[in-house]
């Protein structure tokens, strides 16, 4: 969700991979989408693949990128989120298209084409990624979870500083259950501010981020039971489902299915 926010702010060319969502892993639609974004962003004609298969689509994507790179002075930034999900999907089912082979740079793009790739740790040991993601060819930034002191500072924004300092056991419980995930802590801070959760009540804390989303969905159901308007129910559910997708806990297909059921 952090990278999605950054990509929106900077209007970057982007693709978000979701395990279980075949269209986000198939190289033909993925490369086609990226090429279309580049063409629209920089006002050029997209190079069309001769055949709708990975090799031809990759050549057309590269030609579109190179054309755009020769016409702009600044960097062209391409954001790829969730690369590890494509690796896991391919490992689990070798009949799936191999997005990694076709997507990543091979030294064939101009220097002003920059890639920002997010992944859980460990996939850089994959031999297919050694050239693109090895420490000698890419700068790597490891994002760690929030510490207990950072969690405490965030809760100061919605609750008395002195009462927060007086409950180190509560802060430790939040840090442990959130696993340092800022989204969990943001949801908790909002619930405390709105009076839905009591500060200091450890037994009220969800056990994980997934549990938090389940509780939020249950809260939405209770609102609907109290005859809130259809518009409010729909907007709240859609927002929560979108957060689930961004957190990787729900696929786009599952979100669409939930919305259809509504």
Structure keywords:
three-stranded parallel beta sheet, mainly alpha, 262 residues
Brief characterization of the structure:
This protein is mostly helical and 262 residues long. It has 13 helices and three strands.
Describe what you observe in this structure:
- The protein is mainly α.
- 54% of the residues lie in helices and 6% in strands.
- The longest helix is centred in the last third of the chain and has 17 residues, at 209-225.
- The chain is elongated.
- The model has no long low-confidence stretch (mean pLDDT 82).
Mean pLDDT: 82
Tell me the radius of gyration.
Answer: 22 Å
Order of helices and strands: HEHHEHHEHHHHHHHH
Structural class from helices and strands? mainly alpha
Number of distinct helices? 13
Q: Which stretches of 5+ consecutive residues score pLDDT under 50?
A: none
Strand order of the largest sheet: 1-2-3
Helix percent band: 40-55%
Query: Care to count the β-strands?
Result: 3
Report, as a whole number of angstroms, the end-to-end distance: 25 Å
Q: Sheet bearing the most strands, described?
A: 3 strands, parallel
**What is the general shape?**
elongated
Strand content: 5-15%
């Amino acid at each position: 969700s952090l990278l999605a926010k950054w990509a929106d702010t900077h209007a970057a060319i982007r693709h978000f991979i979701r395990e279980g969502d075949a269209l986000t892993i198939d190289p033909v639609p993925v490369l086609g989408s990226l090429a279309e974004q580049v063409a629209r962003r920089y006002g050029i004609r997209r190079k069309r693949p001769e055949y709708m298969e990975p090799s031809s689509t990759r050549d057309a994507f590269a030609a579109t990128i190179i054309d755009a790179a020769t016409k702009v002075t600044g960097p062209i930034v391409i954001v790829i989120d969730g690369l590890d999900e494509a690796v896991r999907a391919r490992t689990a089912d070798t009949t799936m298209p191999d997005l990694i082979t076709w997507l990543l740079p091979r030294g064939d793009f101009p220097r002003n084409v920059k890639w920002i790739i997010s992944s859980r740790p460990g996939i850089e040991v994959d031999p297919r990624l050694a050239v693109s993601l090895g420490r000698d060819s890419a700068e790597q930034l490891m994002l760690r979870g929030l510490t207990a002191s950072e969690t405490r500072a965030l809760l100061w924004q919605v609750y008395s500083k002195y009462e927060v300092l007086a409950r180190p056991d509560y802060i430790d419980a939040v840090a442990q259950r959130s696993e340092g995930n800022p989204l969990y802590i943001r949801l908790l801070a909002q619930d405390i501010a709105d009076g839905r959760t009591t500060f200091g009540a450890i037994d009220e804390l969800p056990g994980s981020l997934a549990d938090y989303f389940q509780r939020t969905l249950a809260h939405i159901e209770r609102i609907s039971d109290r005859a809130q308007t259809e518009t409010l129910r729909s907007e709240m559910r859609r927002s929560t489902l979108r957060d689930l997708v961004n957190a990787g806990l729900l696929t786009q297909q599952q979100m669409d299915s939930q919305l259809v059921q509504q």
